[in-house]
Amino acid sequence: MKLALASTDNKFFYSKSERDAPTLYFSYLPSFAAQLKEHGKGVIYFGNTFVFGLVGTKDCKQLVADFETACKGSSTKPVKANVKDNVKFDFKIKGQKPVVTKDICQFNITGAGFSEEALVAILQKAGYVSMD
To answer: Which terminal residue of the chain has fewer beta carbons within 10 Å of its beta carbon, N or C?
Structure first.
């Protein structure tokens, strides 16, 4: 997976994931937090059981609230949401301290049976462009 977002005029992107769980995104995307913040860009991945986002601005409360409402409306399991405004990433290089990016928005929502149509409608209304 590669993020080449700096070279485009679009600021916000989304992609439907075929993965069952967001673990790849938890481990991979935080390494790009500083770049996303620097360029004021964001990326959101979603699937049937999760929504995971990393947005280079700290103001994403309404977007997360909209997602949470949509997910609760279709989920067959309890919906859990988590939002962070600081992202810490450890490159695991001896002697190198973890990088902490502040004033950014990382969030995840989990459940089951999320409506793709409802999520895409929220994303498009918020100005996100499909990466697919």
So the answer is: C
Question: What tokens appear for 6 in the block?
Answer: 């700096």
Domain boundaries, the chain: 12-130
pLDDT tens digits along 33-77: 999 999 999 999 999 999 999 999 888 889 999 999 999 999 999
DSSP per residue over 81-113, as a string?
Answer: EEEEEEEEE----TTPPPEEEEEEEEEEEE-S-
- Where residue 4 falls among pLDDT bands split at 50, 70, 90? low
The fold for domain 12-130 equals Diaminopimelate Epimerase; Chain A, domain 1 (3.10.310)
Beta strand spans in 17-98 (E): 42-46, 50-55, 80-89
